[in-house]
Amino acid sequence: MLTLKNVPNNTVPTPRRLPLLYFLFLVSVLSVWTYYVLSLPNLDFIKQRWAAMLTMLFGSFIAGASPEGSAAIAYPVFTLLLEISPAVARNFGFAIQSIGMTSASLLILGLRVKVEWRYILFVTIGGIFGLVFGTYYVVPLISPVLAKLFFVSLWLSFGIALWLENRRPHREVFEEIQHFGQLDKVRLIAFGIIGGIISSIFGTGINIFTFCLMTIYYRVSEKVATPSSVIIMTIETILGFFLHAQILQDFSDESFKLWLACIPVVVFFAPLGAFVITQLPREGIAKILYTILVVQFVGAMFVIKPNFNQALLCATTLAIGLGLFTYLGKLKRDF
């Protein structure tokens, strides 16, 4: 049995009208997109990227409904199945999430879904430093294939750890961090820095990495941690998009065309996922997450067919990640 403390039934009733901020954002995005697209002489590039649009239909919905950003779906599909370079997939991830995750966040705020603002604040502070540091000093050192394998292996280890935690009898979960103190600020900033570095590689990561800390160590309910992580990734992805498009100026023509093709998809499906998650029980959210993590790992193994050294990396990442997340779950904390 799971014991919920301070966790009210925060299922949100269906609103009579769309939240104003989300509606204004939706109309603005679609108006600008329509005006720009109709000014182009040839729209064949949109039809040619139907596979990316289909991917983002599912990816953006999952991004709004889970701590996985849409880049967590797009990155492995683009790089493994569509043979798009990791750099293009990463930059596209930042760009498309700046639309989809912003749209989802505005709906979350408009529906007044419960979030943990201290989690959002201090993780974001660390995430800004981690993203900038990772972009300049870590990304150039990462092999594309190894990056893909590390990505799917780390998140699978978290999925296993969370599954084990949820199988524990009488597990207590909360709607906010209990007895928040100075050490918690440091811890959240530190995890934000690491998460920011991970995001600099894949275009996503800070959301689910810090979600691990929230659900396993702080035992915050998935119904609160999930929308909180969506807001965190929204802030991180806007910064990442700006960094690559305006400062590094490595936002390629292919990334731009992919982005343009997928905008009208994600602006609807990311907030739809965010709304659906408010209607699901906590256990249902966790099961969705388990499924996503297993599918992306199995898919990567099937496509890459790792050699011995690469398989060793996967096993090592799984073992270290599972050890880390399990250790967090076993740490004694005064709740």
Counted beta strands: 2
| End-to-end distance | 18 Å
Query: Structural class of the helices, strands and pairings?
Result: mainly alpha
Supply the number of structural domains: 1
Tally of alpha and pi helices: 13
Strand content: under 5%
Ranges with pLDDT <50 over ≥5 residues?
7-16
Strand neighbour order, sheet with most strands:
1-2
Descriptive overview:
The chain is mainly α and 335 residues long. The protein has one domain (18-330). Helix content is 75%, strand content 2%. Helix 1 runs antiparallel to helix 5 (86-110) and helix 6 (117-137) runs parallel beside helix 10. The longest helix is centred in the C-terminal third of the chain and has 27 residues, at 253-279. The chain is globular, with a radius of gyration of 19 Å.
Annotation keywords:
335 residues, mainly alpha, two-stranded parallel sheet, 13 helices, 2% strand
Give the topology, please.
Blueprint lengths: L1 E3 L15 H19 L5 H4 L2 H16 L4 H12 L4 H25 L6 H21 L6 H23 L4 E3 L8 H21 L3 H12 L4 H26 L5 H27 L2 H23 L3 H23 L5
Parallel strand pairs: 1-2
Gist of the model:
The chain is an all-alpha fold.
